[in-house]
Amino acid sequence: xxxxxxxxTLKEMKKSxxxxxxxxxxxxxxMVIKVNTIENTVVWRWASLLxxxxxxxxxxxxxxxxxxxxxxxxxxxxxxxxQMRVVEWANENPKVKPIALIAVSIFVLxxxxxxxxxxxxxxxxxxxxxxxGLGLNIVVGLGGLLHLGYAAFYAVGAYTxxxxxxxxxxxxxxxxxxxxxxxTIMGILLAIPVLRLRGDYLAIVTxxxxxxxxxxxxxxxxxxxxxxxxxxxxxxGFFGMSMNLQxxxxxxxxxxxxxxxxxxxxxxxxxxxxxxxTWVAMREDEIASESMGIDITKSKITTxxxxxxxxxxxxxxxxxxTTFINPASFTLWESVMILCVVVIGGMGxxxxxxxxxxxxxxxxxxxxxxxxxxxxxxxAMLVIMMVFRPGGIISNIRKKYKFEPxxxxxxxxxxxxx
Amino acid sequence: MAPIxxxxxxxxxxxxxxxxDNINFNVNSGEIVAxxxxxxxxxxxxxxxxxxxxxxxSGDVLISTDGKAQQRIxxxxxxxxxxxxxxxxxxxxxxxxxxxxxxNVMIGRHTKLxxxxxxxxxxxxxxxxxEEKVIQDSYDILVEVGLExxxxxxxxxxxxxxxxxxxxxxxxxxxxxxxxxxxPAAGMNPHETKELDEMILKIRNTNDISILLIEHDMSLVMSxxxxxxxxxxxxLIAKGTPDEIKNNPEVIKAYLGDVSDA
Lengths: 418, 262
Hints:
The complex is a heterodimer of chains A (418) and B (262). With 418 residues, chain A is an all-alpha fold. In chain A, 70% of the residues lie in helices and 2% in strands. In chain A, a hairpin with a 4-residue loop joins strand 1 (33-36) and strand 2. In chain A, helix 6 (117-142) runs antiparallel to helix 16, helix 7 (150-168) crosses helix 8 and helix 11 packs antiparallel against helix 14 (296-322). The two termini of chain A are 33 Å apart. A six-stranded mixed β-sheet of chain B has the order 6-7-8-3-9-10, sandwiched between helices. Chain B has a four-stranded antiparallel β-sheet with strand order 2-1-4-5, with helices on one face. In chain B, helix 3 (101-108) runs parallel beside helix 6. Chain B has two domains: 1-85 and 176-262, Rossmann fold, CATH 3.40.50; 95-163, no CATH class. Chain B contains ten helices and ten strands. The interface between A and B is large, with 34 and 49 residues.
């Protein structure tokens, strides 16, 4: 507590005061002056100015105190973060993991039966974002390639199912692999021209790619039915059983659960494999990884292709779930949202992406009461995250290997938890 | 036997600037060769031409590993050059900062491994065995350079000298025939330099590989290298044993300036 007292010096107070005065001036027109246009009078709300001043004073002090505290921690400090302590605790108590796993699976499996239709539906959406996030995580989190057109692959999947079903009557289960495959091909097609690009330039090109796909879908009426979209897409079938809305929603929920498990399984294996290591190496240093014998061209193409794969798959589910798609569902905002899931959750971390998707998708749904402030909260959250936890809510911990000091024969004891 | 690395009239031009000018150079099997010269002489450019980062404007880069016939490697991509048996380190350390020390070395083993996407996802027995082996091999390399206590540490958290050694370990993991070290002793204190000196000799003696190093630390260069090439303004101005170089008037002029200039 002592260091807190040390922080509240007169100099710091002065700084906070300046900030609060600045905010009072800034918000003066909207907070204080209220013009009544009917009676042509002006109401001066001085009380809200005072409130603004006190509020921003406290916030400024708190903000700078937290910043100071963060900067005090040296990057090499051995002080354990909460996350590290939890991981360690779980490793020391081997029973924790299975119990947690069982608890989570019971909750997940019984969720549609104790919650309503609406709850199940938004949970399904959240699960879709989990898979999308994990897919984009391959490109952004592991490969380090900033991709702003991810929704395009999502659109490819959705339109694959919608159009194949419309023209040829193909079912959901046939379209699922086709959609994923087509998205993968699109991923490769995008990867080839952007091989030489990095950072900002890559972001611009992928952003353009995303918009091109959307604009084509919007304007090529003969192909995609333009902005009016495609309606009456059938929900996934189960051996020809007819289902009411309730059952169908529950069914899609379970399809998504299976898909999430499948994705986590695959991505987890990939990231600790020979190929996954090359992705991370490419993220860390392209020149060094090339001189270690890694084919950067191949690495980039595989990240884009595998990232796109998941988007295509979820796209098919999305079309089946909403039964109606149009290009408005695949705007830049969608790509940004998925990127936020990855960044806020924790780049490169599977658990992080799952948590990030849950928070970002479920929070706005449950905070409907504050829906006017949704964007405000969202923006504030992003800023706070970037300042205080740049690694995301749950940052990635590299896998650790155990070696016995004398004879390191028995190795690869998996110790790290992601 | 053909030299392990030979360049014939190697030239690299950037627009009007000739950074490497007609250099004839060779490293024989098992030799420790140093390339020295004042700052901006074109040493690193020479390195980059040899390792495939740049494609030389003209001339040949020829390598011959395992007693095989000479191969021209101009214009090959760096990863292909590495596969052919040339491994390098960098002047400014280029480790994979956010990967563990062990993983850094495992990346070096990349070209020696085979498992692909299928293996990664389905974990057939061959992949599992391969992974187990790469972990063990990488650990052994770390033991060799004395970094085993940092095995699970992130590379960026290592002390400076250890980072330099890790770079060498990573390059060693590719099982090169020729190891190219770009200023390995830069920023090291005399004690660390001495350790490095011993390490380079040990690597050469135990693994039977040749070493080419760029270095400014003259005590290191003079004590370990068997042959020295001196470049200035992209041109080769002298070559010979350390003693010959020490007394070469051209070299002294390049480093200290002409008497008439003073």
